[in-house]
Amino acid sequence: MLPPKKFVNLLYHFSKTIAIINYLLYNGYTKENMMYHLIVKKDNLANKKNAEKFKRALEVFDGAGINYTIHETSLKDEAKNITREVTSGKGNSVITVGGDGTLHDVLNGFCDFENNTLGLIPFGTGNDFAESAHIPFDAEKAAQIIVEGYSKKIDFIQLESGLRSINAVGMGIDVDVLKRAYSGKSVKRSKYLKALIVSLIKFKSYDFTVKYNGKEENHFGLIAALGNGRQLGGGIKMFPEADIADGKLNLFIADYISKPAIIGAFSKLMRGKVNKVKQVTALACDSVEFIPHGENYTIEADGELYENVPLAAHIERAKLNFYLKNENNKDGK
User: Fold this and answer.
1) Burial of 319 (C-beta count, 10 Å sphere; 0-12/13-18/19+)
2) How far apart are alpha carbons 228 and 212 in whole angstroms?
3) For site-directed labelling of 8, which of 26, 62, 78, 152 has its Cα 20 to 30 A away?
4) pLDDT tens digits for 256-312?
5) Rg, the chain, Cα only
6) Helix, strand, or coil here: 260?
7) What is the location of CATH 2.60.200.40 in the chain?
8) 3-state SS, one letter per residue, for 78-139
9) Would you say the C-alpha torsion 156, 66, 139, 80 has a positive or negative sign?
10) Using one digit for the tens of pLDDT, what is the confidence trace for 64-99?
11) CB proximity list for 103: less than 8 A, separation 6 or greater
12) How far is the CA of 93 from the CAs of 120, 122, 133, 203, in angstroms?
């Protein structure tokens, strides 16, 4: 029979070992044994400049001993399906190498929110969410944030249809701009700008009803949108007070603006001066429903277009683990 002192020491080491095993099984893994799944569109890597950026990001992961696998996508819903598969288990990180559209697809495939983490290395043409999340556009710096391993639970927009949006959803002139920008073979930032100018000239206001905070209002306007991030459309700051982790949904409505005044109004919106445009309603709320008066309509979510999907949504508070820069890091990394 063991002496009491040796028995206590043995019991202590046994309990410590059990605690470590439980931590690894139920609270995630270290970055040395966690798998990082990098999801990137093949089209993005076809560009020589982007391919070089991606290579530099991988060098950061290699230097940190990160275990990763690369998923190159080219088909509709492929990113969503890959994400669904790899987040069904515990302890994985999904890294979106792309813009708002790829991030949107990945979010809509996410399964186990408690045990998986999402990260972002901005690529592509639309990166409005990266601005709100303070993710650097430099691939190496964005990769370094992921390597450092600091994550925070952030919000996202949940539509009653089941669709999710990480940045913004809307209907109206934003949809018109996207349809014009997406026409043709390529989508570049300059094409967005040209599409915006044409839409500002040609788009006609429409009738819709909005329900929020126990109110119901009828509007005749240009756009009705909801934001988790601060901006959409490549830099239009419609939600300047938004915070991706404040638990609030940001409502934006722009009523009819005459053609002579519309350029000046959108110039103010580009700079986040929503309170300087008298036709704008902007406030924070918990849930919102937009009801267009026409039979057929299109909404956009993170730049992706959906036909006749009801735009009724609420905010999912602190649901998504997301790699962010640690603002409390005294070294300023």
Assistant:
1) middle
2) 16
3) 26
4) 999 999 989 989 998 999 999 999 999 999 999 999 998 899 999 999 999 999 999
5) 23
6) helix
7) 167-313
8) HHHHHHHHHCCCCCEEEEEEECHHHHHHHHHHCCCCCCCEEEEEECCCCCHHHHHCCCCCCH
9) negative
10) 999 999 999 999 999 999 999 999 977 799 999 999
11) 96, 120, 129, 166, 167, 302
12) 11, 16, 17, 42
Whether pTM > 0.85 for this model: the answer is yes
- Residue 321 sits at the vertex; the CA angle it makes with 301 and 309, to the nearest 5 degrees, is 20
Could you tell me which of 123, 121, 154, 332 has the C-alpha nearest to residue 246? 154
Tokens in use for 252? 């934006």
Burial of 179 (0-12, 13-18, 19+ CB in 10 A): middle
Distance CA 212, CA 289 (A): 7
Closest listed residue to residue 58, CA positions, set 137, 136, 140:
140
Distance CA 81, CA 238 (A): 32
For 167-313, give the CATH class: mainly beta
Q: Do the bridges between strand 92-98 and strand 35-41 make them parallel or antiparallel, or are there none, so unpaired?
A: parallel
Q: Extract the tokens encoding 140.
A: 């190496």
